[in-house]
């Protein structure tokens, strides 16, 4: 068995070379198969024999949460296969198209400027806590309709929930239960007093017979709230981390902001914010090269590894925003579960990075970059803190 915690790129390169699939520990007791090669990763992400639904059914039996809490948080598109997946995704997909997201640009720019203005006058800040986190968090809360007054509590629960097995079980339990209570209460409040945000329109659709159960409604709020910011914080953080190591590249982006979108695309490939896909379960034996994974086994698909695979990308370990093959990255997944929020994540991070570079041309790291701590667990790839000097 192998662990990918210490130095993911080096470890993953070794795993990619030695075998197409490796058994790794997932949490304290379970074991899963890690897929690391680009071609296998793309195939696995689009393979109906790797089921989300079969996994939910199996793990629900061992879930530590009471059945009502579990159902209120887990009946969302990322836990289903077609046709349920198609139905659940269709209900919200219209809100996340590139066109709908582009309409949010002025508001995101405004929020970005306000956050940066709040940093003025401070010499050293933690770019994660003070900027990379609050921006996507505020955007997704506004999009869903989470009142500002409730956001601080939610921020704490959300941090605990994405820590996964790294968080003590009782803390995890409390965070999940508190969030479930909160979402139920919020749905009640929005039903009584609708606004023009996404949750109110989902409630109306659900009440009008759109085929969304109460558990599906609260679960989609859970999914969007978590997926909508815990990932983008890593993209913004990783972008700044990479640029702090490359001051002349940062200067180029500052001088010509039209270069930023390509740079963000290369960050997505080079330091992918989500290390691996969510877990899947084989419904029949599946073969990768000389390894056959039996039926009923957990599979984890490494996006970070695929994006550094030399068989798919020229000079894969080089950061090069001018490369022409970056668009093939799988940082947002692939196939039917391809990230619904990709246009939003791209827009937020492009605005965030451009504005940060423009406002603080002398931005520097306040600590040696190789001493930063990275988030634990098999899912997220991002630094926990990023102390910087603004001027
Ligand atoms: C840099 C930021 C982001 C990254 C790297 C990212 C990555 C991913 C990945 C890899 C998946 C597929 C997981 C799998 O197949 O197991 C996914 C799915 C998803 N993401 Fe994102 N995500 C980001 C931001 C967002 C945002 C901002 C939102 C919401 C507004 C969002 C909503 C979703 C949803 C709803 C799914 C499930 C799609 C489905 O099951 O059909 N994500 N994301």
From TrEMBL:
Pfam families: p450. It comes from the Bacteria. The keyword ATP-binding does not apply. Keywords: Heme, Iron, Metal-binding, Monooxygenase, Oxidoreductase. Signal peptide: none annotated. This is Cytochrome P450. Belongs to the cytochrome P450 family.
């Amino acid at each position: 068995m192998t662990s990918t915690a210490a130095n993911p790129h080096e470890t993953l390169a070794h795993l990619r070379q030695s075998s197409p699939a490796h058994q790794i520990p997932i949490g304290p007791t379970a074991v899963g198969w890690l897929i690391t090669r680009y071609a296998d990763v793309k195939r696995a992400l689009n393979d109906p024999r790797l089921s989300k639904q079969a996994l939910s059914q199996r793990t629900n039996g061992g879930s530590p949460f009471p059945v009502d809490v579990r159902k209120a948080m887990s009946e969302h598109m990322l836990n289903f296969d077609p046709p349920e997946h198609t139905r659940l995704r269709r209900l919200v997909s219209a809100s996340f198209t590139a066109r709908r997201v582009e309409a949010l640009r002025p508001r995101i720019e405004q929020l970005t400027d306000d956050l940066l203005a709040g940093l003025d006058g401070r010499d050293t800040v933690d770019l994660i806590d003070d900027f990379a986190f609050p921006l996507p968090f505020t955007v997704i809360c506004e999009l869903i309709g989470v009142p500002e007054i409730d956001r601080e509590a939610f921020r704490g629960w959300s941090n605990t929930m994405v820590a996964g097995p790294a968080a003590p079980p009782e803390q995890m339990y409390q965070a999940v239960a508190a969030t479930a209570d909160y979402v139920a209460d919020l749905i009640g409040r929005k039903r009584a007093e609708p606004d023009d945000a996404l949750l109110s329109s989902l409630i109306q659709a659900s009440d009008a017979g759109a085929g969304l159960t109460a558990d599906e409604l609260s679960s989609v709020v859970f999914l969007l709230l978590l997926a909508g910011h815990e990932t983008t914080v890593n993209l913004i953080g990783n972008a700044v981390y990479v640029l702090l190591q490359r001051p002349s590249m940062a200067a180029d982006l500052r001088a010509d902001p039209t270069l930023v979108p390509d740079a963000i695309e290369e960050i997505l490939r080079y330091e992918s914010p989500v290390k691996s896909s969510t877990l899947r379960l084989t419904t029949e034996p599946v073969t990768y090269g000389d390894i056959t994974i039996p039926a009923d086994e957990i599979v984890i698909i490494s996006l970070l590894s695929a994006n550094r695979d030399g068989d798919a990308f020229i000079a894969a370990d080089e950061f090069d925003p001018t490369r022409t093959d970056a668009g093939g990255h799988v940082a947002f997944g692939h196939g039917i579960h391809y990230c619904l929020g990709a246009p939003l994540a791209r827009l937020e991070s492009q605005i965030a990075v451009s504005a940060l570079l423009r406002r603080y041309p002398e931005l520097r790291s306040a600590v040696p970059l190789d001493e930063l701590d990275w988030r634990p667990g098999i899912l997220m790839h991002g630094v926990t803190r990023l102390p910087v000097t603004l001027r």
